[in-house]
Amino acid sequence: MVLWAWLGIIRYWYGILSFTLLGIGADQLIGRLLALYYRGPTGSLAFSILQLRMFPPMAIVIPVMIMWSAFKLIDTWYGLVAVYGVVTFPFVVWLMKSFFDEIPRELDEAAIVDGASNWGAFFKVVLPLAKGGLASTALFVFILNWSDFLIALLLTTRDWPTIPVFLNSLVSSEIGAQHGPKAALGLLAVIPPVVFGILIQRYLVRGLTFGAIKR
After folding, report:
1. Residue 146: CA atoms inside 13 Å, Cβ hemisphere, count?
2. From 1.10.3720.10, 1.20.120.450, 2.60.120.260, 3.40.50.720, which CATH number describes the 2-209 domain?
3. pLDDT for 1-26, tens place per residue?
């Protein structure tokens, strides 16, 4: 059981970290494109994206479980990451668009005039200015996925046990609640988000206040 717990922690850490990096990288590009080229009412766009988060989890998780079972994605890290990517997509795009809206478009234009391509202007000029917002969004997404229980409960079995699911398995009608292992595993579950937050803390203050003052 101890070995299973440690393997689950390592695998879960790998899966959530890989999604956080890959998902944030893809969604920030979408947020930047919306900030640059969307010309419709900002409120309607934000509400349309937010609507994807308004569905109750139970309304989507059962159909997803049936589809994942048909595609043999149950109890795989990439199957779990794909679901988390869809669930957190509106959250990431909405946040990153609001951060990119605060960066003047004149900076893109000046970089392009100086000879940079569109992608060069984004990666060399815009993205460094938005790294505070990127760091805060990454931390929020990491915590949301790290603490998820319902999706992981239905989409994982033994090979990829997540920490919330494994904590739940330590309570049974036969032996009761195993308070010692639960306390130890609960402490271990807190460490990765804290470490992740410490590593990016220099960007968090700027990211959490980015957009608070309108131009």
Report:
1. 22
2. 1.10.3720.10
3. 445 555 556 666 666 666 666 666 66
